[in-house]
Fold this protein.
Amino acid sequence: MGITDKIYKYIFMVIAFSSFIFLTGIIIVLFKEGLPVLSSTGIFSFLFGKSWYPTATPPEFGIFPLIMGSLIVTLGAMVVAVPVGIGSALYIHEIAGEKQKMFLKPVVELLGAIPSIIFGFFGMVIVAPFLQNLFNLSTGQCAFTGALILGVMAIPVLCSIAEDALSVVPKSYREASFALGANRWQTLWKVIMPAAGSGVSTAIILGISRVMGETMTVLLVTGGAAMMPKSIFDPVRPMTSTIAAEMGEAAVGGEHYHALFAIGLVLFLITLLMNMIAEYISRKYRMKLGMDV
Amino acid sequence: MRIKNIVLAAAISLGLGALAGAETGTLVVDGSSTLLPVAQATAEAYMDKNPGIKITVRGGGSGIGIASLQDSTCDIADSSRPIKASEISVALKKGVDPKPSVVALDGIAVVVNPKNGVTGLTKKQVKGIYTGGISDWAQVGGTAGKIIVVSRDTSSGTYEAFGALAMDGEKMRPDALLQAASQAVATTVSKTPGAIGYVGIGYISDTVKALNINEVECKKETVWNNTYPYARPLFMYTNGKPKGEAKKFIDFVVSAEGQKIVEEQGFVPLKKQK
């Protein structure tokens, strides 16, 4: 290897490992800043405590309502995004003609390019009052509105990743299926979907991550009440919006500040778990199909 | 090529930033988002009058402002609440001694939807509504219907001021809708018939109706003569008593000219302007 080759090799090695350095740095900071509150409040009463009163005297740091808020909004959003996102990918990739494809693909991408603050503002000023009148709710700022809007926001992520997954299914699979006399629907459902299964699962999991981590929209449309949601029409306060809304005003180094980092840590661990599940599913599917792991 | 340009631009701006930081005529103002428009507008007016001075104004929150004062990364920390004892002790450990200057006043108006027939509440009723004892408009002389309680986030300076003034420091009911900004409170109240919220005096408009509290209207005269119960001062904190450029700037903010800007931005000036 020439000297220039070596230099380039090391430059690119540093670049490639920079993600690892950033990740390590973030994990260290999350643990360092988040752990003090776990030891002072206790991990059980932090995770399962039902009152979040960070500025009361004495303060209470129970994030169970916040976790439930995040979960209910995420589940609701997936109910919207999975069928629409995967369905769009199937249509665009398998059924649509060239002309429709040329139109639909950029449209979906454009939907994904809209900044979340615009979704949030739109949700707060238009969708929430509309749903409030439609369902005769006491307030339109609730988990349902958040789930609906986040679901729409997650469609592009799901659609484009699922489409990538569909595009790696070998052409021979389709041809073999048609040759055996299967119709288009059977081919789509019995051959292509299982073959693209790992990619589609990844799409769903990344969609969940996107929705879980989404901050601006939920901050504006879910009402922000830190109480246990009894129905999907109750206002909720997801973890992300709690951090966003409170970090600016919390006294740096105080208990509240550490509690917000601990919420970040919980969010990070949930995302990590989700990525591990995605990895597991993807390996299992690939093995089932006899592909290289 | 494009990346090169971006890198170059970043390097130049970093370099310029470092140069600007070395000059004596610079001031960094950081902190409260409530005070941000006042700090921004007064800084612009001050820089027009003193072209040699460069003032950087940042927002983000009272806590952030005080944290950067503790770390000496700003000269003036805007705060919509008094500094906490814990923040003072952290500052002292770092050799910083935060001192307040009151630069403006604010009346916190209790607002309802214009369709609401209620025109006034007592302090006791407001406390009952926000702490959870009162949940229906019929209990306070309105037409029956659930009260939708809207509040600022519990960590905002506005909430802390309101919590101390209106709720005697008691806990807020857990089902209150928490909004990240005063404008969001005003918007929610204007769109929700049964809602009640509280906002700075500057946010009173045709779309939200301010209630009389103990039969006193929220306006600057009642803030001045101390009859309106929910009034608060807004602060600029400095390391020690203001001196040098910081003193000149704060003097400008509290001058007649600066206070005119304070009023234009929707706050209550410190004293009656002639």
Notes: The first strand of chain B starts at residue 26 and ends at 31. The radius of gyration of chain B is 21 Å. Chain B touches chain A at residues 33, 60-64, 66-67, 70, 84, 86-87, 90, 146, 148, 153-157, 159-160, 163, 169, 171, 174-180, 184, 187-188, 191-192, 194-195 (CB under 8 Å). Residues 14-23 of chain B have pLDDT under 50 and may be disordered.
